[in-house]
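Protein modeling request. Please complete all fields; requests missing the sequence field cannot be processed.
Requester role: graduate student
Desired output: 3D structure, token encoding
Chains: 1
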Amino acid sequence: MRMKPQSAMQAFEPVLVRNRNGNSPIVLVCDHASNFLPSEYGTLGLASEDLEKHIAWDPGAAEVARHMSDLLDAALIESGISRLVIDCNRPLDAPDLFWTVSENTVVPANQNLSAQERDRRIAQAYQPFHAAVDEIVEQRLASGLETMLVAIHTFTPVYKGVDRPWHIGILHDDDQRLAAHLIDRLGQDKGIVIGDNEPYSPEDRVYFTLERHGRAHGLACVMIEIRNDQVADAASQKKWAHRLAEILETGKNSIGDAHCQL
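Delivered output (262 residues):
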């Protein structure tokens, strides 16, 4: 999975929406789909190989999400910019909204950002992404359509020298309607090591997109984190997409009303 090449012909799109009018009640989001850097950022002062690592994006996540979108006939909203420019899955007051150090890598161009530059990046990429999610969710709700929100991410097998044994993590808050079904069904395969709120949890402030667009409307929602060595090629990406789509397809039918009182 290599960095998308920039060219004079390649226009920056802050958000990509696929299958906008999908029939599935599931709406997919992929906050860290891309490692694309608009030309004005250069390489943010990093080596080119850094921009292919997990610090710049979630490798494999977009491909899995796109396959799932096709299999489920589900809408998918992707961020079109590297998380190193701005992390769309963070509240605006988060210290890692603009990563100054990601894992052990210093990001030179993110040091001492001015308020003007922060505001520019928010307007350039953050606001369009969240506006697109808002639009799709609110249109569905206004039409009386059942809606559930599922975020697709990947994580690195080793972080700061610590091995992560989980093949997949299912992240949730107190609403476990989708999470419990995923954990139960995935757990039927004894070869899969499942993290329940591992390697992250909402307490780490990584649940922001789902909180803002899902829980705020009382929607069933869940974050799926796949270890990125599990989706390192096209065949494994399709395998995981099929596995997760099948589980979610049965889950959406068993959950019933997707709304809850918060």
